[in-house]
Design brief:
Elements (H helix, E strand, L loop, with lengths): L2 E6 L3 H5 L9 E6 L5 E5 L5 E9 L2 E10 L4 H16 L4 H8 L5 H16 L3 H11 L13 H15 L1 H20 L28 H9 L4 H13 L3 H5 L6 E2 L4 E4 L8 E4 L2 H12 L21 H11 L8 H12 L4 H8 L4 H9 L2 H23 L1
Parallel strand pairs: 1-2
Antiparallel strand pairs: 2-3, 3-4, 4-5, 6-7, 7-8
Helix pairs in contact: 4-5, 4-7, 5-7, 6-7, 8-12, 8-16, 9-11, 9-13, 13-14, 13-16, 14-16
Length: 390
C-alpha cells in the first residue's frame, strides 16, 4: 500500500482539517514536537495515533489509540512513554502482546504502579494505600469480569463506609488503571468511565480555641513521645503528613531556624520557618537522635515513622475531639494565621501552596514576614492552652 508522509504541529484544528486518504491508501502525518508520534488516516477519515520508530534496526509501528477518543496531549504523553521504553531496549509491541492476555486486577495494578505511577507520580504510595484498602479483595478477578454495575456498587459501598472523598479517589484510581490497560493492549472497555462521582464539600475543620487546650493536654499525656512530637511538629509547621514523616536532620538549620523540604507535592522545594516552640521540640529530639530521621522507627523498612493512625485515634479519644483529621492540623495553622492578621499570600507561602495567581508575589516574598505570621499564630494557639492551665 502506498503511503504519504507529512510533518505538522498537532493541534485540534490541524487534525480536524485532515481530509480522508485516497481510496486504497493510508496517509501518515507526523508531529513536529514528539519524536515518532504520528496519525494514520484511512480512506474513511479515521485518525489513529501511532509511534513509528526503528527498534534494533527494524521499523516498528506502535498503535496508541484513535482520535478524538485519545486527546493530543494524551497521545504525546503515551508517545513519550513509548520512546522511554525504546530507550531502555524494550519493544512496546512485545510489551503490548503480553497485556492482551487476560489479566487479573492485581496484575494490572502491579503493571500500573511500576510502569506509570512510580515513574510519573510523586504520590504513588497513596495509590498503593487506596488499592490495599478498597480493591485488594478483588485481586484474582479477571479484568473482563468487571462491568459498570460492579464499579458503581463498589463506589456506593466505599462512599457509605468511608466517605465520599475516599470513594471518589478509589473510582479515579480504577478509571486510570483500566485506561492504562487499554493503552497497553487490553481489548476490553473501561467499566469505571463516565460514572458520576459524589459531590464533595470543601473541608473547613480546624482546631478551635476551646479545643486547643484539650488537644495539647492529650499530647502531653501520650506515652509515645515520638508520636506526640510528630503531631506537635505537624501543627506548628503546617507541613503535609508525608513531609513530616520523612523529616531529616540534614534539612534542619538550627542557626537560621528553618526546615527545608527538598521536594513537596507540587514538585518544588519549600523553606519553612520554625517557631520557637517547634525549634525547642526539635533541639530536644536532636540531642537524642538515633539516625538521619527526626522521627525514627526501629520496625519500618524506611527507618522512619510511617503510620500514626493508632496514636492519632488515642489523641482524639483522650481530647474528646470528633471529626478531626491529621491533615486538619495543617488547616489549623493557616486558620490561626488568618485570625492573627496574615493575608492569603503569607499563609500560602508558609503552607507551600502553589497557585498561578500567587506565584509572582511568592517570588518576591522573603521569609521574615512568613516567620512573623507563624510566630503570631503559634503564640495565639499556645495562649489558649495557658489560659486553661492558669
Amino acid at each position: 500500500m502506498n503511503k504519504i508522509e507529512t510533518k505538522i504541529n498537532f493541534t485540534k484544528r490541524a487534525l480536524e482539517c485532515i481530509a480522508p486518504s485516497p481510496k486504497g491508501k493510508r496517509t501518515y502525518y507526523y508531529d513536529t514536537k514528539v519524536r515518532g508520534l504520528g496519525v494514520s488516516v484511512t480512506d474513511k477519515g479515521t485518525l489513529t495515533f501511532i509511534v513509528y520508530r526503528k527498534i534494533s534496526g527494524r521499523p516498528e509501528r506502535i498503535t496508541l489509540g484513535r482520535y478524538p477518543d485519545l486527546s493530543i496531549e494524551q497521545a504525546r504523553r503515551l508517545a513519550a512513554e513509548t520512546n522511554a521504553q525504546i530507550a531502555q531496549g524494550k519493544n512496546p509491541n512485545n510489551e503490548k502482546s503480553k497485556l492482551k492476555e487476560e489479566l487479573t486486577l492485581a496484575e494490572l495494578f502491579n503493571h500500573y504502579i511500576e510502569r506509570h505511577a512510580k515513574p510519573h507520580k510523586k504520590s504513588w504510595q497513596s495509590d498503593v494505600d487506596q488499592y490495599r484498602l478498597y480493591l485488594s479483595g478483588m485481586n484474582k478477578r479477571k479484568l473482563s469480569s468487571f462491568n459498570r454495575t460492579d464499579i458503581e456498587s463498589l463506589h456506593i459501598k466505599v462512599g457509605k463506609n468511608h466517605g465520599h472523598y475516599a470513594a471518589n479517589r478509589m473510582l479515579a484510581l480504577l478509571a486510570v488503571m483500566f485506561n492504562k490497560a487499554i493503552d497497553w493492549g487490553w481489548q476490553g472497555t473501561n467499566p469505571a468511565m463516565g460514572l458520576k462521582k459524589f459531590s464533595e464539600k470543601s473541608r473547613e475543620r480546624f482546631l478551635q480555641g476551646d479545643e486547643l487546650p484539650r488537644f495539647f493536654t492529650a499530647l502531653d499525656a501520650e506515652p509515645n513521645v515520638s508520636l506526640a512530637d510528630f503531631f506537635r511538629i505537624s501543627l506548628l509547621t503546617g507541613a503535609r503528613r508525608n513531609n513530616v514523616l520523612c523529616m531529616r536532620w540534614q534539612d534542619i538549620n538550627f542557626h537560621q531556624a528553618t526546615w527545608k523540604i527538598p521536594e513537596t507535592k507540587n514538585g518544588m522545594s519549600h523553606l519553612i520557618p520554625l517557631s520557637h516552640q517547634a525549634l525547642s521540640i526539635l533541639q530536644e529530639r536532636y540531642e537524642a537522635k538515633h539516625n538521619e530521621w527526626v522521627f525514627p522507627s526501629q520496625t519500618s523498612k524506611s527507618g522512619h515513622l510511617e503510620e500514626p493512625k493508632s496514636a492519632w485515634k488515642r489523641i482524639l479519644q483522650r481530647a474528646n475531639l470528633e471529626d478531626l483529621r491529621l491533615h486538619d492540623l495543617r488547616r489549623t495553622l493557616g486558620s490561626w494565621q488568618a485570625a492573627t492578621g496574615a493575608n492569603s499570600y503569607i499563609i500560602g507561602k508558609s503552607l507551600g501552596h502553589k497557585t498561578q495567581q500567587a506565584t509572582a508575589i511568592y517570588a518576591r516574598l522573603n521569609i521574615d514576614p512568613v516567620r512573623e505570621s507563624v510566630e503570631k499564630a503559634t503564640q495565639a494557639m499556645f495562649a489558649k492552652h495557658t489560659e486553661i492551665r492558669t
